[in-house]
Structure formats: C-alpha cells, structure tokens
Amino acid sequence: MTAATPLFHLAFPVDDLARARAFYGGLLGCPEGRSSDEWVDFDFYGHQIVAHLAPGEVRPAARNAVDDDQVPVRHFGVILDMASWQDLADRLQAAGTAFIIEPHIRFKGEVGEQATMFFCDPAGNALEIKAFADMSQVFAH
C-alpha cells in the first residue's frame, strides 16, 4: 500500500457565494464540490478550498515588500508548471483582471527565480499563482 500525497485544505471568507462561484468555478476553472447556502467547496488544482459566506470577516490584507513588490501578507495560491502559469496569466489578462502585482519573473537570475502574479477574488482575498522553470528551486535558499 502506498501513501497518498497529502492535500491542502483552506477555508476563507467571502461576501457573495454567486460571485465566488463565478470567479473560482468560471474564471479559474476550479470544479465545484459540495455546497450549502453557507459555503462552497472547490477543487483548486487538486486541493480543497472552501469559500464560506462570512461578510464580516472579509478585509484587505496588509502588505510587505518582497523584491520591490508590495506583496499581500495574507494570500494563498498554487505553484504551476510554466506553460499552465502562462495560460492562466493570458486568460486573466484577457478577462480584464485587476492585478495587485502583474505577471512577471521575480528573482530573475537568482536562487528561487519564479514567475508570479497576484490578484484578488471578488471578496478581496489575495491569491498568488507562481511557477518555476526548475522545480528544485521551490525551497532553494
């Protein structure tokens, strides 16, 4: 018997489930799982995220400087391969997504070089989608 790869689970607040469905299910293409009048599960690239209706919990994240960018401290995301990252960046740009940090290469020529982009869902939750040409660099220092 082989051990399964652990999956990540994240629950986060939203102020409108219909807009969360349109964003995560429609724009990002995340299949919807179970749901109720209070929450919706999404398959976020093989991981489970849950949008919970909690308007009082929705608030903007503080920001810290990282490589000359103001990165939202509270954010989540996924690491894709470069081709999938570029496809998503193109789709988000075509949809008119307002980026916090435009798609670009961070730490160019350094340890940890990565493609990254930051944007918010309709409730203001910040997401970072990144990619590495060399996946061995994910935890390099």
What this model shows, in words?
- This is VOC family protein.
- Residues 6-132 form the VOC domain.
- It comes from Marinibaculum pumilum.
- Pfam families: Glyoxalase (PF00903).
- The termini are far apart.
- The longest helix is centred in the middle third of the chain and has 13 residues, at 82-94.
- The protein has helices at residues 17-27, 82-94; strands at residues 9-14, 32-35, 39-44, 47-53, 63-66, 69-72, 75-80, 99-106, 114-120, 126-131.
- The strands form three sheets. It has a four-stranded mixed sheet with strand order 1-4-3-2, with helices on one face.
- It has two domains: 9-57, Roll (2,3-Dihydroxybiphenyl 1,2-Dioxygenase, domain 1); 63-137, 2,3-Dihydroxybiphenyl 1,2-Dioxygenase, domain 1 (Roll).
- It is an alpha+beta fold.
Identify the notable features of this structure and list them briefly.
about 15% helix, 4-stranded mixed beta sheet, 2,3-Dihydroxybiphenyl 1,2-Dioxygenase, domain 1, Glyas_Fos-R_dOase_dom, VOC_core, 2 domains, alpha+beta, 2 helices, 10 strands, globular, about 140 residues
